[in-house]
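One record is set out below.
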Amino acid sequence: MDYAIKTEIRDPQAKTFAFTAQKTMYGGKHIAEGDTVFVFASENEGGQGLIACGVVTSVEAIAKKHGIARQTPRVSLSIERTALVKRPLGRRELKHFTAWKDGRPETELNFKFYRQATNKIIGISDEAAAFLGEFFSAAGSVQRGRSQAALMKSSEQI
């Protein structure tokens, strides 16, 4: 599985990003070192949506606070940027994709990121990852982390 994060980005051109105690939803808590992650600069924080993709270089689960029944899992992580986006993709481009069960990657991203506008890390489908990859080059190639390598290894065993 690949991942995406939407959060405040202070330097969109940075070669590395570090995030502390980020909320996780939709499988985001399973993010691990070596995973591919697509980085969105949160429009709620003045950003413009998709800005980069990269590979997770470190991740640490944040312990839940004692005595609080319902808590969203949180993680701190570092990402090494592997590519900058070539064309825009954000809330403006995704907001019209609202047929929640249509199976489109645009709808998946709109649902997971913008239906609840909080900043978060999310797990995304292979289709959504391929769709996002198209925003980085004409050929749609993105340097992949552990997720793609694991996929290739499992296909070799078949």
Notes: The beta strands are 2-7, 16-25, 36-41, 49-62, 74-84, 120-124.
